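User: I'm putting together notes for a lab meeting next week and I want to include a structural view of one of the chains we've been expressing. I don't have a solved structure, so I'd like a prediction I can at least talk through. The sequence is below, exactly as it appears in our construct file.
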Amino acid sequence: MITAIVFVKADVARIPEVAEAIAALEGISEVYSVTGGIDLIALVRVRNHDEIAAVVADRLNKVPGVSETETHIAFRAYSKHDLESAFSIGLD
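Assistant: Thanks for the context. Below is the predicted structure for the 92-residue chain, given as structure tokens.
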């Protein structure tokens, strides 16, 4: 599995709609609204590098309201967050 992190600049008035449209794309696992110089961060999880191009260049960049993207390909993960165990605390 290949993971890419995509920084997205979007039309400020349309950030929620842009985020929802990006989240609905095949290959996108998560989209976060963030503070700072960018508006959204999208996580792409695909099987090969060609699919990153298809997701980012062919689909994400064409979402109305997206003005700019910057893609970073992850090559190693140093930690894993286990959401299931975090939410099960105290439920025994």
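A couple of points you could mention at the meeting. The radius of gyration is 15 Å. The beta strands are 2-10, 28-33, 40-46, 66-74.

User: Perfect, that's what I needed.
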